[in-house]
Amino acid sequence: MASPDKKRKIAPKVFNDPIHGNIELHPLLVKIVDTPQFQRLRFIKQLGGKYFVYPGASHNRFEHSIGVCHLAGRFVRTLRDKQPDLDIKDEDVLCVEIAALCHDLGHGPFSHVFDMKIIPKAWEMDDRKNNEKWKHEQGSIDMFDHMLKVNAGLAKEFNDMKFTNGKKFTEKDKTFIKELINGPKKDDRKGRTKEKWFLYEIVSNDRNQIDVDKWDYFARDCHMLGIGNNFNHNRLISFSRVIEVEGEQQICYRDKEATNLYDMFHIRNLLHQRAYQHKTSNCVEIMLAEALVLADKHITFEGKDG
User: Fold this and answer.
1) Long-range CB contacts for residues 288-292, cutoff 8 Å, separation at least 24
2) Are the C-beta atoms of residues 200 and 76 closer than 8 Å to each other?
3) Residues in CB range of 261: below 8 A, 6 or more apart
4) How far apart are CA 151 and CA 37, in angstroms?
5) How far apart (Å, rounded) are the C-alpha atoms in residues 78 and 80?
6) 172-198 pLDDT per residue, tens
7) Which CA distances in Å does 294 have to 49, 135, 284, 291?
8) What is the pLDDT of residue 174?
9) Are 147 and 40 in contact (CB under 8 A)?
10) DSSP assignment, residue 52?
């Protein structure tokens, strides 16, 4: 029997997901999920006002974030297993998973309605034109920093985390996580050296838009909307490989996966035509945005500046 004075370790947790089946999360990821900052994602609709047109589109950012984390972990482990010469460490894997889990922490009410309609309109009324380029990715980084600041137990878990190679989490790792969420230009990357820049293509891929964030929401949105999806992200992971292209390590795919990739971009276009740009839901979102902008002066919260 364990000593009552011995600190109980948090075990991995298994989530049963309708898209990916059983998802097992590392104990540190479980600690992040248990924070109020992550739990708020349970109440943010993935597709904003689309729920008013598609009754099945009731899914939230919470389950999407867990799904992206699962796919990111699978992807990076597949690359590590197939190409040991890439020298992918345990800390690289966990950093990618944390970034995937936290990539949407900055979303506001009704998801993209907030950063694309509400924020620009509110700032226009306040004549704050210099801030119109704010994106939820920057909000996610701010929320990640805030989460570590206000949850002392989580910050301690980060500091006490020890990998199999004896290394501990460093400030450089935290920088890497934030760069994965909202990556700077290549020359400004500080989290990892050029040999591992391919890791920046897993969660949010600025080079060709092929990343696990899209893979999860394509599958999840199609499932909840009742739209068919021929794209197979599991097969694409199996036929992935890191290759040096023009002096830079990049994630590449077998030539025979060209049709599968075509299906990926096709389903993206189809989702925009049938759901994301649906005329009725766009009207609903405009009304939601107008209501929240009018309420902006009357609903106030104390910010970090007091």
Assistant:
1) 288/48, 288/49, 288/110, 288/113, 289/113, 289/117, 289/118, 289/121, 290/121, 292/109, 292/118
2) no
3) 210, 236, 253
4) 10
5) 5
6) 999 999 999 997 788 889 999 999 999
7) 18, 21, 16, 5
8) 94
9) no
10) G
Torsion of CA 58, 63, 64, 65, to 10 degrees: 140
Burial of 131 (0-12, 13-18, 19+ CB in 10 A): exposed
Of residues 103, 107, 136, 278, which has the active-site annotation?
136
Both tokens of residue 167? 């290394």
- Assess contact for 281 and 53: CB atoms under 8 A: yes
β-strands 248-253, 21-25 pairing: unpaired
Task: Note the pTM of the prediction, 2 decimals.
Answer: 0.92
Q: Is 59 a catalytic residue?
A: no
CA-nearest of 263, 284, 299, 209 to 57 is 284
How far from 233 is each of 170, 217, 229, CA to CA, in Å? Answer: 32, 11, 11
Q: Residue 170 and residue 181: Cα distance in Å, rounded?
A: 17
Per-residue CA distances from 48 to 45, 113, 272, 299 (Å): 5, 7, 14, 20
Under 8 Å between Cβ of 191 and 96: no
Rounded distance between C-alpha atoms, residue 180 and residue 88, angstroms: 16
